Amino acid sequence: MIESSVVEGLPAEGALLLRMSGSLDADGAQAWSEELRGHLEQADRAGLRPVLDMAHVQLGGAAVLRTLSETTRARTGRPDLIIVRARPGVREAVHLARLEGVRLYATLDEALHELARVASRVEELPAWRSQMADPLRPSYEDLYKEVRALRARMRTAPVIGMAQGTLMVRYGLPDSGSAFRALREASQRFNVPLRVLVSAVVVARPPDGDVWFPGRRSLPVPQLRMLARGGRDPRYRRQMIDAVLHEALAIGKAPAGYVQFVDPAVNALMLETHYGCAETFLDQLVRGRGDGTADAAARVRGRQVSVPDVATDAQLSDDCRRALLTTGTQAVHSVPVLSSAGSCTGVITLHWPDAGHRTTAGQAEAFALLASDTSAWLSWYHRSVLLDALEHLHRALTRPTP
């Protein structure tokens, strides 16, 4: 059996993670080959890099080898299939067969390091090795995006595991696969990102009856200035977060920026959307190195933080300063998104290429209003759409089996 999930972000920035489980023998090889081929075609259509996690495959070195050989033979010119965490017998068979179109790594972390190493060598390549010379090869920008998406996946994976374990214990599920399928179904039905749903499962108080949140009433959508433009639907999280960034960029007349929200399960800022930022800087963000940044300062202080000169500002760490200057950012402004209780639930950050840039009083006021709108929407979304998804998950797992 193969389960698929898109890893973090838009299709152009992500990977399709294929989790394979069960026993594979000669009898089942053909069926598995067809299923794998369908998933790979799905990845190709969406522009995703396929990553096959084989940690839970029990048997079948020869069967796996034959299946991979038949499947990858038809993928000439497509991005290589990355295989991680295969068992020793499967790894050895694939390695000895020297299959084309397959890249084998013992762990996901090893794959990330290798992709990062390859991506970092872009400046060393001669002109004749450029993308123009071989248009079927992935660009180095694509490799940077792939590394970033997989790093984000690594940060999210432990929370997914905690949520799976929680559901298995709470509802007596037979295995982690059953828990994951229930989470995925609720995520897709309510259009809630999987990482947001699993975080809520981990931090929400456990249900105490047939209804998880008894007495809950439907909440009206708050009156928001950003909803008055463009016919935006507050139920669609990504659409609203993109709208927040668009508004911030317009207010600050900034060429680049990004939005982060706090993941309550890990108490850390997580990248939600971005525009105009260099891939090397975004990779710094998803590594979770938040100390010594304007984002972290705005979150801790609960007020807007300006860095008019990145090169000389003492509140930035050396790593942050280096990442910003290397990518041409000379000035930064971060705006915290505060809940009604005063806690920081997110940060909006803008970048400028010119040192000495300072926001005006009018811009600071507009940023504060945007942050207030964002907080109101986020609170409504969590208490409406997200709790609806949790309630559905609870009903689905407590429903008597026919």
TrEMBL record:
Domain ANTAR intervals:
140-202
Alphabetically, the GO molecular function entries are: RNA binding
Keywords attached to this entry: Transcription, Transcription regulation
Where the record annotates domain STAS, the positions are 13-115
Q: Which SMART domains match?
A: ANTAR
What InterPro entries does this protein's entry cite? ANTAR (IPR005561), GAF-like_dom_sf (IPR029016), STAS_dom (IPR002645), STAS_dom_sf (IPR036513), WH-like_DNA-bd_sf (IPR036388)
Coiled-coil features, chain-numbered ranges: none
Asked if the record carries the keyword Transcription regulation, the reply is: yes
Source species, domain of life? Bacteria
Return the protein name.
Answer: ANTAR domain-containing protein
The source organism is Streptomyces corchorusii (Streptomyces chibaensis)
Q: Upper lineage ranks?
A: Bacteria, Bacillati, Actinomycetota, Actinomycetes, Kitasatosporales
